[in-house]
Amino acid sequence: ATPTALLVGTGRGAQLGVLIKGPQVLESTRRIDTVVLDKTGTVTTGRMQLLDVRTAEGTDRGEALRLAGAVENASEHPIARAITTGARQELGELPEVTDFANVEGLGVQGVVDGHAVLAGRAALLQQWGLHLDGPLAEVKAAAEAEGKTAILVAWDGAVRAVLVVADTVKPTSQHAIAQLRELGLTPVLLTGDNAAVADSVAAQVGIDEVIAEVMPADKVEVVKRLQGEGKAVAMVGDGVNDAAALAQADLGLSMGTGTDIAIEAGDLTLVRGDLRAAVDAIRLSRRTLKTIQ
Ligand code: ADP
Ligand code: MG
């Protein structure tokens, strides 16, 4: 490969809204056969909205929103922002949180007004011996069946509320995934979210292979496993939790709209956060390499 032809490819990439770390990157895209896509912020906008607040019998709705909003105020996660924004709209100022901890891929915990509050996945609450049953379990199941995410909120030793949040699929995702298939690539959806939500998003954009409920630290293991099966893997992601997987992949594509850590870990940045730029990048590298050969 002549460096000049590769550099031409690199310059063309910039026009397409793709930033390429170095000319050598284009070469590694040649063998790619599998494209692993993070869900939140990559296939979806990551702009979540709080749609519903449901409480257990005897629990005040405002109280649930106040405690959940306060504890999520200390988190940067898109789900946290949706909950805090929704809570502020209804209640105005939120109380302070102390002893805050972010439990990566599971949720958050903290102390608000003397209550130890947990908000997140069922797996987080299980760590504290808390389980969901009765009408709230039905609320959770119904929300997830519709592709929404249910966040469980517990304080004073019981699960007392379910907050329903939803994210929307980017309007360009479906088209981009169809084009990846046309290039002979297999798309795989990878997410820490639950299987019901993941399946719903996958169906909306035309992805058959779904790997859900993956802890942030295990995303890299999924990439390694696929590589172990002989696949050449491109990973597309936006979050801190995607950084190790982006670095491990044969080709790491980070969303320009994502976190700096993810952008640093990738080989290539999709400036506008549009998945179609990933397709352009792969096409471009194939064309560039053909010119060289
Ligand atoms: P993804 O892999 O789709 O980017 P994450 O790994 O960031 O998702 O999160 C996985 C799941 O963990 C979320 O769907 C949510 O259920 C839970 N979670 C993560 N952070 C929070 C938070 N701040 N509040 C509540 N739940 C959270
Ligand atoms: Mg993400």
Descriptive keywords:
293 residues, alpha/beta, Rossmann fold, Calcium-transporting ATPase, cytoplasmic domain N, 2 domains, seven-stranded mixed sheet, six-stranded antiparallel sheet, 13 strands, elongated, binds adenosine-5'-diphosphate, binds magnesium ion
Summarize the structure.
This is Heavy metal translocating P-type ATPase. With 293 residues, this protein is α/β, with parallel strands linked by helices.
Structure in words:
The chain has two domains: 167 residues, 3-Layer(aba) Sandwich (Rossmann fold); 118 residues, Calcium-transporting ATPase, cytoplasmic domain N (3-Layer(aba) Sandwich). The chain has a seven-stranded mixed β-sheet with strand order 1-13-12-11-2-9-10, sandwiched between helices. A six-stranded antiparallel β-sheet has the order 3-8-7-6-5-4. The model has no long low-confidence stretch (mean pLDDT 91). It contains 13 helices and 13 strands. By secondary structure, the protein is α/β, with parallel strands linked by helices. Helices cover 43% and strands 24% of the residues. A hairpin with a 3-residue loop joins strand 4 and strand 5. This is Heavy metal translocating P-type ATPase. It is found in: Cell membrane. Belongs to the cation transport ATPase (P-type) (TC 3.A.3) family. Type IB subfamily.
